[in-house]
Amino acid sequence: MPRQVDPAARLAAVSDAVVAIAAERGFAAVTIRAVADHLRASTSVVTHYVSSRDELLRLAVRRELEVRRAQAERAMAEGPHPLRALVRWAVADLQDQVHRFWLSLLIAAPTEPVLRTELDGFNAWWGEHLRGLVQRSGAADPEVVADTLDVVVDGLVTAGFEDLDAVRRDRVLDRVWSALGLEDV
Fold first, then answer.
1. Considering the entire predicted model, what is its pTM?
2. Which of the listed CATH numbers 1.10.357.10, 1.10.10.10, 3.30.56.10, 3.30.930.10 matches domain 7-179?
């Protein structure tokens, strides 16, 4: 009797393999063969669920971005200061694989249209939330504040590769909130 396979679990495993490969070696290394090897399966197992490399990338990146978006939504909903929660979520305690996945995504997006599309969708979500929260904060110049927070988040995420510890990161964020006049936000 043929072995029963849960399609949702298999798709999740395929996506996890893409994330792991991209985090370890970059998106250029993500191929149907590499994913099959990572899963210790044949390429036909992978192509049963996805028909092309682009579909493979789209599936995995979209799933990863949805997970991150859900985490951010929870963080914003749980505390009294959604703007602080959103920024903290973006820079705090990223698992190493997630951190490296994001760096790989940022590096590959300019030359991989499917990655660019998914990243643009996420960035639109991020910008809408960040700018909306800044607008509601009462900041004197919301556009400048949102742009500043964007740059600070990008810098702190990048600095995370250089062993920026939580104490230093929090100290930087405290100074940023103060400089932007958002101590109570």
1. 0.90
2. 1.10.357.10
| Cα–Cα distance measured from residue 114 to residue 109, given in angstroms and rounded to the nearest whole number | 8
Percent of the chain past pLDDT 70, that is, above it, reads: 98
Q: Which amino acid appears at position 57 of this protein?
A: L
- Mean pLDDT is lowest, of 71-75, 101-105, 136-140, 160-164, for 160-164
Cβ-proximal residues to 104 (8 Å cutoff; 6+ apart), any chain: 22, 23, 26, 27
CA distances from residue 170 to 20, 88, 185 in whole angstroms, order as listed: 29, 9, 15
Domains in the chain: boundaries = 7-179
Distance CA 177, CA 149 (A): 9
Residue 112 CA to residue 29 CA, distance in Å, equals 13
Average pLDDT over residues 66-82: 94
Mean of all residue pLDDT scores within the chain: 92
Say if residue 58 is exposed, middle or buried (CB neighbours under 10 Å; 0-12, 13-18, 19+). middle
Supply the Cα-derived Rg of the chain in whole angstroms: 19
